Amino acid sequence: xxxxxxxxxxxxxxxxxxxxxxxxxxxxxxxxxxxxxxxxxxxxxxxxxxxxxxxxxxxxxxxxxxxxxxxxxxxxxxxxxxxxxxxxxxxxxxxxxxxxxxxxxxxxxxxxxxxxxxxxxxxxxxxxxxxxxxxxxxxxxxxxxxxxxxxxxxxxxxxxxxxxxxxxxxxxxxxxxxxxxxxxxxxxxxxxxxxxxxxxxxxxxxxxxxxxxxxxxxxxxxxxxxxxxxxxxxxxxxxxxxxxxxxxxxxxxxxxxxxxxxxxxxxxxxxxxxxxxxxxxxxxxxxxxxxxxxxxxxxxxxxxxxxxxxxxxxxxxxxxxxxxxxxxxxxxxxxxxxxxxxxxxxxxxxxxxxxxxxxxxxxxxxxxxxxxxxxxxxxxxxxxxxxxxxxxxxxxxxxxxxxxxxxxx
Length: 409
Hints:
By secondary structure, the protein is mostly helical. It has helices spanning 2-5, 8-39, 43-70, 73-96, 103-128, 134-163, 165-183, 198-213, 216-235, 239-246, 254-274, 281-301, 305-333, 339-367, 370-388, 396-401. The longest helix has 32 residues, at 8-39.
């Protein structure tokens, strides 16, 4: 851990990540409240925000991953911040003139840019963080994300209701500028000497598909992510009904259960960081997913807020351990030059299955019951745990040293 905290690349990436998290939550809460205010709570307009955030994942994730593998990560991340900065300036004027619909463009541009920046950030960690420190690095990243799950909505709500939408959007200019300044101090990476062309992109994509096909563990991970996303998607829009119908609480009380989930994620990330290198991969992933499935079932049967809150805390803790192990495993398993493409292949599957589950949830509740949908979700999450048993955590890095020739046999 001490070596990690002295790693300049890791600290700069973390600083940029913290700023990005602040920007994400200020943006998300401001856009949500602003659209609700402008449309008098029109659910179609609110759902459109989700569409413009998820659609670019399908359209740009794979291409973004291919280009992130080819482009220099430092320059890609800086240009992402610069483009985000430049896109907000005209939108501020348009919103000031009364065209509130322009806020959807903010959400879409941010989603597009993230498809290039995220794999570039992963490449930097893969390249500049020693393998024995990767678990701690992923745990620290998880800690930041978990902390903002708790504090992000509070921060975003405070900024919007205190200063309004114009200040909320203007603050993003400062955040993106500061993030770009931090990234300027990252070391440069060698650039590809091959000229970028459509044929080159197609060849890179074909190479990524071939790499995925030859690595059995990556195919297992892709199936596991798809099953996990489907199960989680089924209950994602239903938590509000869990609070109001099963627990008999007010809608506003949902925030406390969300905070407990975030607290569990934070505690789990701290434990993962302290146990860096000693977590048993397959056992942690299997136990985490089994507990997540069981916790989902217990939550829907529970009529006691303390029990439901306790399950949120416990499942959040084990989910953080699971995410840390899987994130570390992905970085050690995938060679640096393929990280963007593999991320671009897996992300649309995870997102698509989440949206399928979310789309089916309302219909299933209408045709059956809340209890049935949560029980079905729990069973699907446990199925993901069974899929995870096919993963092999037998030193994937060593396989990569051999050129990946033995992987998938």
